[in-house]
Amino acid sequence: MAPQKPETFMLSTEAQQALPHDAQVALQQVDNLKYFLISAPVDWQPDQYIRRFLLPTGEYVSCVLWNNLFHISGTDIVRCLSFRFQAFGRPVKNSKKFEEGIFSDLRNLKSGTDASLEEPKSAFLDFLYKNNCIRTQKKQKVFYWYSVPHDRLFLDALERDLKREKMGQEATTVAVSEPALSFQYDSSQSLYEQLTKTQQANSSSFSAQQPAFPPGQSSSPVMRNMDAMPRPI
Question: Distance between CA 145 and CA 150 in Å, rounded?
């Protein structure tokens, strides 16, 4: 059973299968990005410091090795999310306000545990700037690669806009195509909570369908949710 995706978990199986070809291609491109976000730090050459992924938008997202740790910039996180909203059928129309919301969420990721706080024009920021990973060399956090809950950030940004629309306010993104047009918002609980429950239900169903294995044998494949983590405090 395929894991539920943040972009389509609110749709029925029939609705997911009936998505237009363009929407299916776009969601496959999101899967390609997610694979990069999982696998980028693997199998580097001894003298390698950066690995890039070309988004369909024409922008690059970079995994950067610095001080023996893998990093991603806030700018690249926003690029990932902007692309995901576009692929979802809800492109960004107010970039400034959209970015402000993402960077506000990123404040939950703390220096030292989730990110490196870099002083203005540090050697690291200079490297990132020269490689188009950041737009400015002002003091900022650069995030540890696996500390960033990408799905959670997507859902929280989507929920903010859906709430704005429900209250008659201007959203930072606008639904123009599927699956966004068919996405039904239930405001009784957060989107992330709804996704987590759906994933847990599917995981339980998956486990119940698996044959029993003798001790010492593994029931592969093991299902793992990349962003199944509590909100950082």
Answer: 10
